[in-house]
Amino acid sequence: MLANLGDFDRLRAAFQWRIPARYNMATHACDGWAARDPSRPALYVPQGADFVPVSYGHLAEASNRFANALAAKGITRGDRVAILLPQSIEVLVTHLAVYKLGAIAVPLASAFGVEALTFRLNDSGARALVADAAGLAKLAERPEWLDLIVSRDGPAPGIEGFDDLVSRASATAPGIITGPDDPALMIYTSGTTGAPKGALHGHRVLIGHVTGQHFTHDSMPAPGDRMWTPSDWAWAGGLLNTVLSALAHGVPVVVQPPGRFDPESAFRLMKTAGVRNVFIPPTALKMMRAVEKPKERFGFNLRTVGTAGEALGAETFEWGRAALGVAVNEFYGQTECNYVIGSNARLGVARAGATGKAIPGHDVRIIRTDGSLCDIGEMGQIAIRAPDPVMFLRYWNQPEATARKYLGDLFVTGDLARLDADGYIHFQGRDDDVITSSGYRIGPSEIEDCLLRHPAVQIAAVVGKPDPVRTEIVKAVLVLRPGYKPGPELVKEIQDFVRTRLAAYEYPREIVFMDELPLTTTGKVIRRLLRDQT
């Protein structure tokens, strides 16, 4: 833990990791608290119009029972257990049970379609699948190595019922001993730049996320803290940045009711459930900007707001402080190496348009292709020095792809950023997203942020379109706010708006309008699909 958040520079200089020889994520996130205070609330689950508590003691016992039930069905250390469930008690119980067995959890997003699910089940070689009826309906065919299917919605031919297995099993802890580098979790990359890859993590990954959450959520835990995220718990942002880290801090987590994300419902939930801390991806925050005077209308009382997944931008940063009543602390990471850059407004480590600084414990650099450090203001790749507790063990069955992620002892992200004179890191986009126009290398983030300042624009994505003269031109794909209609006059108005605020070569020479942008399950814009449409 970061013992004293008094001075950032002293904190970074003094920080040291202490990784125990024996360590299990389930013990850290649940069983330790259950032993000390079994009635302590761990979750608040929706029930009618209210939210009711579920204790650490309940989660510990239920996960012991499910771990023993899985073991009785032949699931053992190292086996992959796929989890296809929405936010719920059952998804968390399953994760904890898998960690207690020394098996490997493979979270799958409820939004995945048939092809996405089939790919991940086949690639991981999962021996068990825990799902609900809606998820099982997407299962085109049962992979031959999938020995066990468990449904939250009850038994069926060839399918075990979740509650039946839990109720019949022993409540005694399995007693499996794990170390920090033992595999625990495999999260597939979002697939924004190609086929998804399984990023395999050891149990130690939670230690780094707990520290990151402590930093970006202003010394969490604080009295009255209560966490919520609309993000699917199958994503690293939902599972590690939010749920497991909050539980390890002793902070209860509010479970999102089923249904699509809706900005007004989100504000209403924060009030009804007494939410004090949130993790909301930038795309969702930009959608929430359309709600007028949310604090006055809904009366929520937030202590901290965190965001990650894409660049937040200065416009949304400033809106957040005014509309939400607190600073939005942005942070950065990848599925393979997460929560390494962040902001903490209370410490004075926050700047509009910047992602933040390297979180204590992480050695983050901006480098050229040869590994040398970039100059101040020079665009380069974000790299993190190994070893690091949040760094993945490897890609599943892809040793060549794993090797390509390293340059010596540096993990190279493929994401581009600039470092300013005060040590702030400004995320620019993926290497694939950078636009080359008339000899300039242009990151999309700055242009997108400028577009968001126009009153007609709700969400913006910028890509390069091939051009025989300029190599590429800047193309903007926009979702408009309610009340605005696309047309030539609006296109010219937006182009002039950007041209007068940024460099002349950065304004979008082409603008198209869409009802919604293509997003990954983690809320990131899939720019390659937009480029394919050029």
From TrEMBL:
This protein's UniProt keywords: ATP-binding, Ligase, Nucleotide-binding
Classification via InterPro entries: AMP-bd_C, AMP-bd_C_sf, AMP-binding_CS, AMP-dep_synth/lig_dom, ANL_N_sf, Mitochondrial_ACSM
Pfam families in the cross-refs: AMP-binding, AMP-binding_C
Keyword Nucleotide-binding: yes
Domain AMP-binding enzyme C-terminal: 446-524
Domain AMP-dependent synthetase/ligase: 33-396
Molecular function per GO: ATP binding; CoA-ligase activity; fatty acid ligase activity; fatty-acyl-CoA synthase activity
Family: Belongs to the ATP-dependent AMP-binding enzyme family.
Name used for this protein in its record: Putative fatty-acid-CoA ligase protein
Organism of origin: Azorhizobium caulinodans (strain ATCC 43989 / DSM 5975 / JCM 20966 / LMG 6465 / NBRC 14845 / NCIMB 13405 / ORS 571)
